[in-house]
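PROTEIN DESIGN WORKSHEET
SECTION A - STRUCTURE
LENGTH: 467
TOKENS:
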């Protein structure tokens, strides 16, 4: 396993690719990098060029920045290879793949306590971002119908979430002409609060979006308390504001590790939930899910019936043609793991997160913002006034010397003066790897502590890390 990976800057590359003489014949023409050459090449040579170039990518097992899954069973790899050509949209040609997608929706609806798991609506998507777009559209359309029914304007919809929201919701608001209302987070409460929600909503609010697993810290926002505050608001004012839970990460964690937590369709005000199959659903990249509490929560006019490739089918995804293999991998995981298997995998990841967070909290220069008790994600900051010789960005760069990708980034605008580091523990990141990370972290800190003067800091723009 490689223990070194440097950050490379983008530089001007030669116009021609270098060739390996063991693969290419002497009379092969030069290979342009930025345009198609006149003739093709043999498949082994094309493979070797791409294979050699991606060898410079980081080691996925050492990438503690991403939530996206990087490992599956060999049997899943085999199934993936057998199914990569299946088009999820073509339900007439691939009826069993379509049936398996439907089963997965029913399993998730049941897992999230839908009152009608066998009758509600849901769909697979290319990821949680697409699922969030669909959820937001359903909220907006429902609000528009309500406003028109009582003769009011539909000109100024808004949507409410915390300032720590994932960037997809900013995109939704921008793309679909909805005013985003950010409830500021604070050091004491770095998440969406009921009081904050009540201060932001009005008759033009299409919905409230709490996050089950905040990207920055991994903590759950208090869905039940927010729902209770909105229930009380409706009782006083008649204003009925629905909730969509962005459970991109927590949707595959809370049912197994915190089954007593009330956050899902047990709350009637929760109309829809999204989750990422390719995060803690334990599937390779390219899969998200959205499920509505009941079919009536999805407006009928968002569902299209199309005649395509010999069949008549309903569709309400934003994408049309898309891979079906990841859906099959999700069903494979449901069969392979069952409830106890998912519990074992997620609990092992949480144990590793807690081990690391506890060890880091004992280092005198750091203090935790979260410890991995919700989803297996934790973050920490430098203790105020500890040193002016180095910062967490320096530590992040130093860890790359050992191959680790551990991001440092500022908190949202209301806490942008606070820089944190975050670790995402995923399936495959074992306790053995955690010990190696901890050793390298201590060595990196030791090097920074030994400096005679401050580290030079290039003036580079820093943006929030929101994977």
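SECTION B - SEQUENCE
RESIDUE ASSIGNMENT:
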């Amino acid at each position: 396993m490689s223990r070194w990976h440097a950050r490379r800057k983008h530089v001007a590359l030669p116009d021609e690719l270098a060739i390996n003489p063991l693969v290419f014949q002497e009379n092969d023409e030069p290979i342009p990098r930025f345009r198609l050459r006149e003739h093709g090449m043999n498949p082994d040579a094309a493979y070797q060029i791409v294979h050699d170039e991606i060898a410079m990518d980081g080691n996925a097992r050492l990438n503690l920045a991403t939530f996206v899954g990087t490992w599956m069973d060999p049997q899943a790899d085999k199934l993936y290879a057998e199914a990569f050509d299946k088009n999820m949209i073509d339900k007439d040609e691939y009826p069993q793949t379509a049936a398996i997608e439907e089963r997965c929706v029913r399993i998730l609806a049941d897992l999230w306590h839908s009152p009608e798991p066998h009758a509600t609506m849901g769909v697979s998507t290319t990821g949680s971002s697409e699922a969030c777009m669909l959820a937001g559209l359903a909220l907006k359309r429902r609000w528009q119908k309500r406003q028109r029914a009582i003769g009011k304007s539909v000109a100024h919809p808004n949507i409410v979430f915390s300032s720590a929201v994932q960037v997809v919701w900013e995109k939704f608001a921008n793309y679909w002409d909805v005013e985003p209302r950010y409830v500021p987070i604070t050091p004491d409460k770095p998440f969406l609060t009921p009081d904050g929600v009540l201060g932001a909503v009005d008759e033009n609010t299409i919905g409230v979006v709490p996050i089950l697993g905040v990207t920055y810290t991994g903590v759950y926002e208090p869905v039940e308390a927010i729902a209770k505050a909105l229930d009380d608001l409706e009782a006083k004012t008649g204003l009925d504001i629905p909730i969509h839970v962005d459970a991109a990460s927590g949707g595959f964690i809370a049912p197994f590790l915190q089954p007593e937590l009330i956050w899902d369709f047990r709350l009637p005000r929760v109309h829809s939930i999204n989750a990422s199959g390719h995060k803690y659903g334990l599937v390779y990249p390219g899969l998200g899910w959205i499920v509505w509490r009941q079919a009536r929560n999805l407006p009928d006019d968002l569902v299209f019936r199309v005649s395509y490739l010999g069949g008549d089918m309903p569709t309400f995804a934003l994408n049309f043609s898309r891979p079906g293999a990841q859906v099959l991998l999700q069903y494979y995981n449901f069969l392979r793991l069952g409830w106890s298997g998912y519990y074992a995998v997620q609990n092992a990841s949480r144990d590793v997160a807690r081990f690391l967070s506890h060890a880091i909290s004992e280092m005198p220069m750091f203090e935790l913002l979260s410890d991995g008790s919700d989803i297996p994600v934790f973050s920490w900051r430098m203790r105020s006034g500890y040193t002016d010789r180095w910062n967490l960005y320096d530590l992040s760069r130093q860890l790359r010397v050992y191959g680790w990708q551990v991001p440092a980034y500022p908190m949202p605008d209301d806490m942008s003066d606070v820089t944190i580091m975050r670790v995402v523990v995923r399936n495959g990141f074992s306790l053995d790897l955690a010990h190696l990370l901890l050793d390298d972290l201590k060595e990196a800190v030791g090097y920074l502590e030994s400096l005679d003067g401050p580290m030079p800091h290039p003036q580079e723009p820093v943006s929030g890390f929101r994977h």
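SECTION C - NOTES
The chain is about 35% helix and 15% strand.
The domain at 71-467 is CATH 3.40.640.10 (Aspartate Aminotransferase; domain 2).
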